Amino acid sequence: MRYRARKSDCDQCALKDRCCPKEPKRKVTRSIYESSRDVARQLAQTKQYSISCKLRKKVEMSFAHLKRIHGFGRLRLRGPSGAHDEFILAATAQNLKKLAKLAPNQNRIEKAA
Fold first, then answer.
1. Phi-psi bin for 10: left (phi > 0), alpha (psi -120 to 50), beta?
2. pLDDT digits 0-9 by tens, 53-65
3. What is the CA angle 92-98-101, rounded to 5?
4. How many CA atoms lie within 13 Å of 108's alpha carbon, on the beta-carbon side?
5. CB atoms within 10 A of CB 90
6. What percent of the chain has pLDDT over 90?
7. Strand 27-29 versus strand 2-4 pairing type
8. Residue 39 reports pLDDT greater than 90
9. Closest Cα to residue 27, out of 57, 2, 59?
10. How many Å separate Cα 90 from the centre of its chain?
11. Phi/psi of residue 73, each to 5°?
């Protein structure tokens, strides 16, 4: 949708030099989907949206780590059951790495004593 001002209205306006310096009158285009975008922008301002972004980031980082570090750019096992098995193994490996970080390190214990 296009909204246009009259040239006579723009000529009288004090903001014309900043608003449309190279045009005789102001034109504003607005997409027919702008109302949907407004709803999305309002949702993006909510607390629940920020929480979901943080949770989604954790999951996305796990997948990025699998792809970049563990070489999961392509699956080696075929079919849905093969992909499922491969991801179960990868998730197990990631969980073991997290568990290893939580375990007390003997070197740190000896240095502290």
1. alpha
2. 999 998 888 888 8
3. 140
4. 5
5. 19
6. 22
7. antiparallel
8. yes
9. 2
10. 24
11. -65, -35
